[in-house]
Records
---
Amino acid sequence: MNRCAPATFGWNSAASAGVALLLAACGWLIFVFAPREITMGDVQRIVYLHVAVAWCALAGCVAMGLAGAAYLVRRTPGWDQWSQSAGELGWLCSTLTLATGSLWAHDAWSTWWTWEPRLTATLVLWIVFAGYFLVRGSIEEPRRRARTSAVLAILALADVPLVVMATRWFRGIHPITPDMDWRMRLVLLASVAGFSALFVLLAAMRKRQLDQAEQVAALERRAGIVT
Amino acid sequence: MELIQAARAWWWLVHKDLLREMRAPRTWAAMLLVALALAMVIQLPLELPAAEKPAFLGAMFWLSAFFAGTLSLDRSFAGEQEDGCWQGLLLYPVSPATVYLSKVAGNFVALCALNGVLLLAFALLSGISLLAQPGLFLATAVMANLGFAAVGTLASALTAGLAQRSGVLVLILLPLVLPVILAAVGATQSILEHEIGAWWRWLQLLACFAAVFLTLGTLLFEFIMED
Amino acid sequence: MGTLAIAFALAWAAVALYVMWLGYHQRLLRQRLDALATADQEQEASRSHARAA
């Protein structure tokens, strides 16, 4: 009987090594190359991590929505799997954004939290991801689950810019684009690139795993095994 | 021609829902009572001096409207599902968009009635009338209710038939509807403080939200209705 | 400095946990595949037994 390949990680060694190298380079850039900031000192280096994961969280949301739309058009399970992978990592990144942001805020503004546009929008994003997975978890039938999740992902995608607009009109103290030393800007870009690469790698691994799970489920159905 | 038929079908669906509600009030009675209870409970502990009331009134009003309105939205599709009429609705020769827009209209009417009751309750309990500038407030309420009904109907359809329905509906609805709540509160506050420029900005955000979600809903509803 | 260390530690802990979670799911998949292989072998065995009989 034909079985799918041994269930390994789908660990693409070259890609993983590449990402590891990139992250190591980022580490060097963040801790050695980037100049020490005058006002806040070394704690300012959190920014390189915080902005990178925030960017990944937003990218995850966008990817989740676009993959959902692709699923509704194409109806291939692969798109639903991409949507789920992007959603999981997006949720993880938004959690990290809130955590690192809070840590930085405590040092910079002496408060763990404030109802300020970007923070509120990120919290909303976090809740949206959580809702997405709650709904996914509540539906057994795979096609209905994929359809419902896709619609929710598209709604979330449309909502996030509106939340940003609404909260920006409401009030704002979060730094938008402060004047940065060219070296800091370089390190920031590198950090975003590094974390984005890690995001894509992990998402691809997860997507492949979901695909394998789908194949195993199909084989089990054929063999009459009920799970 | 098709448009006239669709409009007739839309009116028939709206008329059917409103008539059913009038004959055996299941949803409206609960919703209006909850609204009154909320209006009391929110204002009672906050014995504010008259000068500070306007700042909070807008927020209290729209939060009460949101929570009570969620009851109506929650029941949008429950009626059909419980009475076994869902299949009938699916087989009825109208486009899913017409069904969606009819449900939105029904919810919109319910939310407007809710606003009326809340206005009365708040005027009596706080001594401040939100209708000092009726035209502006009416425009705000219409846009806010439209946006809220648009996204709420979608969310209700998404969560209809899930295991833990009500909890998930509020969880999904809250982040999606946040821009509406913020904008409505901002607009109401601007009216009370006589800042027309600010009010116009908020109204634009409300209109934008309503337009985006009505369009999305019309496009996406058929994917929710498939079964 | 402590804040910086905590932030980076959190990030790497999150990535590590996610990878471990992926590994756990992969192990589950492997178990299911093994169960399928075993069921397959048993079916083969009973078929050849029936043929022999």
---
Amino acid sequence: MDKILVGLKRVVDYNVRIRVKGDGSGIETDGVKMSINPFDEIALEEALRIKERGEASEVVVVSIGTSESQQQLRTGLAMGADRAILLETDSAVDPLSAAKAFVKLIEDESPGLVILGKQAIDNDNNQTGQMIAALWQRPQATFASEVALDGDTAKVTREVDAGLETIEVDLPAVVTVDLRLNEPRYVKLPDIMKAKKKPLDTKPFAELGIAIDDAFTTTAYAPPEQRSKGIMVEDTAALVSALKDKGLL
Amino acid sequence: MSNILIIGEHSEGSLNAAVAKCVACASSISGAEIHVMVLGDDVAAIAAQAAALEGVSKVLTVEAAHNAAPLAAVLAPQIAELAADYDYVFGPSTTFGKDLVPRVAALLDVNQLSDIMDVVDARTFKRPIYAGNAITTVSVKPDYKVVATVRAASYKAVGDQTPAPVEAFACTAETPDHSRFVSVQTGSSDRPDLQTAPKVVSGGRALGSEENFKIIFDLADKLGAGVGASRAAVDAGYVPNELQVGQTGKIIAPELYIAIGISGAIQHLTGIKDAGTIVAINKDEDAPIFEVADIGLVGDLFKVIPELEAALG
């Protein structure tokens, strides 16, 4: 295979404790640490391993977002991607428009595989990969926990509610990855230096001719309802009688 | 008047329990006419189950050999064809629905609303973001087809009714042959299904080993409960991944949830916040699980579990 495209989204770091703004207008993101969406990091790691096994010749990382997303693309280059493309916009891009933008890139780049995280940990939509596959009219293998390439096909094991499902898809295809697929490598300092010299292409999202969909408007943000703290019991006997009182035993 | 199409997920001849919860969500949109679509290679029994769900006015079936396995790429064009005439298309937020519904939405050239947890009005919905750390209210512009997944744990299943009519839908959509089902490996057991069991016993990292985790299974069997686990216990290899409860695993709402040796990371709590009664047993009195537990017991699980079993007789 010639090429793998990997989607990287810039999101609030998964270790940050999210806070809703006091006036309910959004999420507090000022001065908050930003990172590559962890699922996308796993997607990139998988692409790099495929390349290192000699099954692909180039790994291209792609992001859609503000110019600050260059930081995450540079991290992707430091992990080992060969080049990066940023589709730059200051607007929030919905999953359908993001998928349309990816398909435009796919037309230019002709990848054998497109790999993304199954969802971004900010909006938790879990849609973009499936939408790319639909618009591209190619197979999708979502929630992957194992990817095995074999010539023109891939066998993908998927984490589904019932357990592990295996499907076979013709290439090119879209794969979205789950947590247990691999453990992403750490970036080393010399690689960060090297990454500065790798190509990072920026194109204005507006030039793609894709109208950002305005169908959904988020009108309010609220913290989740908290469960109130209950009672503490001293021993097993007290636990059993508390459960009996509630009619649960 | 609006009409709603619900995708009837099923496996091994049974309708998935989440479908009855999607119907409940759809019923909260006033004046809605609710239809269920069932695709498969042998659908009669499943269609009959869907027809008996309270509020469903029609079931539409597409019976074909290529619908034997739940492949999103194969099912999506057929659903999109029928969905053209509907104002809303709902699927459950199971792995089946999450895989399939966005593909349907893209074919219909609309965005998808993920994980509806509340219907405010016909165009306004609530959904969680940031692993449930924030709840957003989203309004959808007029005349835009609402394609959505429904967070099953937020709804109670509808009851039964005199069965609605079942009709075959003459589907003409072309289906691709680029995706093929190979196999599914399930941890089959006679225990109640984790997602739908009224009682669930979950174990965490404190169990210490796959062998020790057996006491969780034994206690669950005494209670007639399903078994779950924290992500830490799954990552440590004590139990298979399909038992994971939490944001990246299963989101459940049993009447009784007993968390044993689980500290209560936010991602785990997101998966159980709709449970009726939460019981926490943990030797660390500062464990965050106690902040949400209705009944807490600080103690050594290896002592408490045998005592509990003895008390249950």
---
Amino acid sequence: MVHPAPAAHVMVDDTSSSVAGCGGALLVGSLLAFVFAASSGSTVFMVILGLFLLLALAVVTWTILEIRRWEPMELHFSNWPLELGSSTTVPVIRRAKQAVPDASYKLEAELECEESATYTVGTDTRTDTREVHEDEIVVEGHLRDRTFSATFELDIPLERGAPSMDLGNNKVEWKLDIDVDDLSRLMAKIAFTLDVVPALDSKHRNIQDTPLGGSR
Amino acid sequence: MSSHDPNLAIRLEHDIAEVGSSFLCSLKRSPSDGESNDKTVGQVRAIRISLRMTTEGRGDTDQRDYATAELDVDEYGMASGDVRLHVPSDAPISYDGELIRVLWQIEARTDIKFGVDQRSSAPVLVVPIGGKGVYDRPHPLTMTLPGV
């Protein structure tokens, strides 16, 4: 069993519950449509909807089995909150609920800083997004004793993007997408939203001449 | 609706502050000759000062006053005093991005009875904690102030 060093903060993926919710909604929707078709007496319509119902049932069953197979993914941040210019060690832990064979997998972590601006044109509301920072990290993770673990370094840049902000129409968001090859087809990509605070990491604080620009 | 107040001077101790700290500004309003007559006595009610964040760029404008204060005026519309405006620790920093620009200013509005309010403003920079020495010059994260 893998026990990471005590973390300053642990983020737990809650995608499983939302996937299960969507699957359930799909199943209920298909069932209602099937009942409606049966009451209207259209055989062809009923057969088509019956196939959809079977498909939805298969998807939901498979989803539930996948959810039962794995615990939610955990990210253990060594430093929290995330500051501009900081470097944080992030062990990723995912435990299996059932016996799984030991293996090595590739973990891809993608850090993104995205600006989004919402504006109105006539009666339409539109949102434009722009990625202002992207960093891709690839490490190898190992699945041993029913626990998958991998560790990577997360660097929040000093000079790209801005701290997280939600001003209403204008937002800056930091996202971390975790993708583990073949570990679970259901959770192919898990997205975490990070909170980057308006503070510099201690090693950059109040330094007059930094690599960011020339001297004053 | 407002117009520029030529009689109101805003002087800042610093035009840059970290989130969680504050701006100290001195305000002085000395009426012009035209205002110093019997007709204008009691016309100026107060001077309202605000620390205002405004966005520019692709999105619709977001605007918010993060701190406000009021300065009393005498019957001739004169006022003088120091005001401290606190920048909350969760406030956005000044930022010059690709779609978004976050601008900060200190605005003083002269409230005139039955008249058009007059205003004066001074641009300021809000920087992250520990960023005073790093961002007080042209930088992608912050807007350039005139004279910086």
